[in-house]
Design a protein that fits this description.
This protein is 76% helix and 7% strand. With 144 residues, it is mainly α. The chain binds heme C.
Protein backbone atom coordinates (compact mmCIF):
# COMPACT_ATOMS: atom_id res chain seq x y z
CA UNK A 1 0.00 0.00 0.00
CA UNK A 2 2.82 2.32 0.95
CA UNK A 3 4.47 1.66 -2.38
CA UNK A 4 1.24 2.46 -4.21
CA UNK A 5 0.88 5.76 -2.35
CA UNK A 6 4.48 6.52 -3.17
CA UNK A 7 3.94 5.76 -6.86
CA UNK A 8 0.84 7.92 -6.81
CA UNK A 9 2.75 10.80 -5.25
CA UNK A 10 5.56 10.41 -7.75
CA UNK A 11 3.26 10.46 -10.75
CA UNK A 12 1.42 13.43 -9.30
CA UNK A 13 4.72 15.29 -9.08
CA UNK A 14 5.52 14.45 -12.68
CA UNK A 15 2.14 15.79 -13.78
CA UNK A 16 2.58 18.90 -11.61
CA UNK A 17 5.99 19.55 -13.18
CA UNK A 18 4.56 19.11 -16.68
CA UNK A 19 1.82 21.64 -15.90
CA UNK A 20 4.38 24.07 -14.49
CA UNK A 21 6.36 23.78 -17.72
CA UNK A 22 3.25 24.82 -19.62
CA UNK A 23 3.71 28.32 -18.18
CA UNK A 24 2.74 31.08 -20.60
CA UNK A 25 5.95 32.01 -22.41
CA UNK A 26 4.32 34.04 -25.17
CA UNK A 27 5.82 37.49 -25.69
CA UNK A 28 3.85 40.11 -23.77
CA UNK A 29 2.62 43.16 -25.69
CA UNK A 30 1.66 46.02 -23.35
CA UNK A 31 -1.23 48.12 -24.61
CA UNK A 32 -3.55 50.75 -23.15
CA UNK A 33 -7.01 49.37 -22.28
CA UNK A 34 -8.47 51.14 -25.34
CA UNK A 35 -5.87 49.74 -27.74
CA UNK A 36 -6.21 46.25 -26.31
CA UNK A 37 -9.99 46.44 -26.74
CA UNK A 38 -9.51 47.54 -30.36
CA UNK A 39 -7.17 44.65 -31.18
CA UNK A 40 -9.39 42.08 -29.47
CA UNK A 41 -12.44 43.53 -31.24
CA UNK A 42 -10.66 42.99 -34.55
CA UNK A 43 -9.91 39.42 -33.50
CA UNK A 44 -13.56 38.70 -32.79
CA UNK A 45 -14.38 40.15 -36.20
CA UNK A 46 -11.93 37.63 -37.72
CA UNK A 47 -13.71 34.80 -35.95
CA UNK A 48 -17.23 35.87 -36.89
CA UNK A 49 -16.14 36.54 -40.49
CA UNK A 50 -14.71 33.01 -40.64
CA UNK A 51 -17.97 31.66 -39.28
CA UNK A 52 -19.92 33.50 -42.02
CA UNK A 53 -17.51 32.29 -44.70
CA UNK A 54 -17.67 28.67 -43.55
CA UNK A 55 -21.46 28.79 -43.54
CA UNK A 56 -21.52 30.36 -47.03
CA UNK A 57 -18.99 27.80 -48.32
CA UNK A 58 -21.22 24.93 -47.23
CA UNK A 59 -23.90 26.38 -49.53
CA UNK A 60 -21.45 27.19 -52.33
CA UNK A 61 -22.46 30.81 -51.94
CA UNK A 62 -19.21 32.27 -53.29
CA UNK A 63 -20.60 35.80 -53.46
CA UNK A 64 -21.03 35.90 -49.69
CA UNK A 65 -17.62 34.26 -49.22
CA UNK A 66 -16.01 37.03 -51.28
CA UNK A 67 -17.90 39.79 -49.46
CA UNK A 68 -17.02 38.47 -46.00
CA UNK A 69 -13.37 37.88 -46.94
CA UNK A 70 -13.03 41.42 -48.27
CA UNK A 71 -14.26 42.87 -44.95
CA UNK A 72 -11.32 41.09 -43.25
CA UNK A 73 -8.81 42.26 -45.87
CA UNK A 74 -6.20 45.03 -45.79
CA UNK A 75 -8.89 47.74 -45.76
CA UNK A 76 -9.76 46.62 -42.20
CA UNK A 77 -6.27 47.47 -40.94
CA UNK A 78 -6.50 51.02 -42.33
CA UNK A 79 -8.79 51.90 -39.43
CA UNK A 80 -6.05 51.21 -36.88
CA UNK A 81 -4.84 54.40 -35.16
CA UNK A 82 -1.19 55.29 -35.89
CA UNK A 83 -0.18 55.21 -32.22
CA UNK A 84 -1.54 51.68 -31.89
CA UNK A 85 0.49 50.54 -34.91
CA UNK A 86 3.58 52.01 -33.24
CA UNK A 87 2.86 50.14 -30.01
CA UNK A 88 2.82 46.77 -31.80
CA UNK A 89 6.07 44.84 -32.38
CA UNK A 90 7.18 44.52 -36.00
CA UNK A 91 6.78 40.74 -36.04
CA UNK A 92 3.18 41.09 -34.88
CA UNK A 93 2.42 43.72 -37.52
CA UNK A 94 3.93 41.53 -40.24
CA UNK A 95 1.83 38.51 -39.28
CA UNK A 96 -1.27 40.69 -39.04
CA UNK A 97 -0.62 42.14 -42.49
CA UNK A 98 -0.11 38.66 -43.97
CA UNK A 99 -3.52 37.57 -42.65
CA UNK A 100 -5.29 40.67 -44.00
CA UNK A 101 -3.61 40.21 -47.42
CA UNK A 102 -4.61 36.57 -47.57
CA UNK A 103 -8.26 37.56 -47.03
CA UNK A 104 -7.94 39.99 -49.99
CA UNK A 105 -6.65 37.11 -52.10
CA UNK A 106 -9.43 34.80 -50.90
CA UNK A 107 -12.00 37.45 -51.94
CA UNK A 108 -10.43 37.87 -55.40
CA UNK A 109 -10.21 34.11 -56.03
CA UNK A 110 -13.72 33.41 -54.70
CA UNK A 111 -15.02 35.91 -57.29
CA UNK A 112 -12.88 34.88 -60.24
CA UNK A 113 -12.71 31.09 -59.72
CA UNK A 114 -15.82 30.32 -57.65
CA UNK A 115 -14.11 27.13 -56.46
CA UNK A 116 -15.05 26.29 -52.86
CA UNK A 117 -12.30 23.65 -52.52
CA UNK A 118 -9.68 26.22 -53.48
CA UNK A 119 -11.15 28.69 -50.96
CA UNK A 120 -11.15 26.01 -48.26
CA UNK A 121 -7.46 25.29 -48.74
CA UNK A 122 -6.70 29.04 -48.64
CA UNK A 123 -8.68 29.29 -45.38
CA UNK A 124 -6.68 26.40 -43.95
CA UNK A 125 -3.45 28.26 -44.74
CA UNK A 126 -4.78 31.48 -43.24
CA UNK A 127 -5.79 29.69 -40.05
CA UNK A 128 -2.24 28.42 -39.57
CA UNK A 129 -1.23 32.10 -39.45
CA UNK A 130 -3.84 32.82 -36.74
CA UNK A 131 -2.49 29.85 -34.79
CA UNK A 132 1.16 30.82 -35.08
CA UNK A 133 0.57 34.41 -33.96
CA UNK A 134 -1.50 33.19 -31.02
CA UNK A 135 1.31 30.92 -29.92
CA UNK A 136 3.80 33.81 -30.06
CA UNK A 137 2.04 36.77 -28.38
CA UNK A 138 -0.26 37.76 -25.54
CA UNK A 139 -1.66 41.21 -24.80
CA UNK A 140 -1.61 42.83 -21.35
CA UNK A 141 -3.19 46.08 -20.30
CA UNK A 142 -0.91 48.87 -19.18
CA UNK A 143 -1.94 49.68 -15.61
CA UNK A 144 -2.20 53.41 -15.05
C1 LIG B 1 -0.61 39.22 -35.53
C2 LIG B 1 -0.98 38.28 -34.50
C3 LIG B 1 -2.35 37.65 -34.58
C4 LIG B 1 -3.01 37.17 -35.68
C5 LIG B 1 -2.50 37.10 -37.11
C6 LIG B 1 -4.29 36.71 -35.22
N1 LIG B 1 -4.40 36.90 -33.87
FE1 LIG B 1 -6.09 36.55 -32.75
N2 LIG B 1 -5.13 37.26 -31.09
C7 LIG B 1 -3.81 37.65 -31.04
C8 LIG B 1 -3.46 37.99 -29.67
C9 LIG B 1 -2.09 38.45 -29.19
C10 LIG B 1 -4.62 37.79 -28.90
C11 LIG B 1 -4.75 37.98 -27.37
C12 LIG B 1 -4.25 36.71 -26.71
C13 LIG B 1 -3.96 36.89 -25.24
O1 LIG B 1 -3.70 38.01 -24.77
O2 LIG B 1 -3.96 35.85 -24.52
C14 LIG B 1 -5.65 37.33 -29.82
C15 LIG B 1 -6.97 37.03 -29.45
C16 LIG B 1 -7.91 36.48 -30.31
C17 LIG B 1 -9.27 36.16 -29.92
C18 LIG B 1 -9.89 36.41 -28.56
C19 LIG B 1 -10.57 37.79 -28.60
C20 LIG B 1 -11.09 38.26 -27.24
O3 LIG B 1 -12.08 38.99 -27.22
O4 LIG B 1 -10.50 37.90 -26.21
C21 LIG B 1 -9.86 35.61 -31.02
C22 LIG B 1 -11.29 35.11 -31.13
C23 LIG B 1 -8.89 35.61 -32.10
N3 LIG B 1 -7.72 36.16 -31.62
C24 LIG B 1 -9.13 35.11 -33.35
C25 LIG B 1 -8.21 35.18 -34.41
C26 LIG B 1 -8.44 34.60 -35.72
C27 LIG B 1 -9.66 33.82 -36.16
C28 LIG B 1 -7.34 34.90 -36.48
C29 LIG B 1 -7.02 34.57 -37.91
C30 LIG B 1 -7.99 34.91 -38.92
C31 LIG B 1 -6.43 35.65 -35.62
N4 LIG B 1 -7.00 35.78 -34.38
C32 LIG B 1 -5.23 36.13 -36.04
C33 LIG B 1 -2.95 37.76 -32.11
C34 LIG B 1 -3.23 37.44 -33.43
Amino acid sequence: MKRITCLFAASFMIIATAVAEEADTRTVIQLSPQHRALVLGEMRQFLSGLQQMTDALSRDDMETVAREARILGTSMSHHMPADLKQALPQGFRKMGHAVHSSFDQIALDAESLGDSQHTLSQLGETLTRCVSCHSAYQIHEIKN
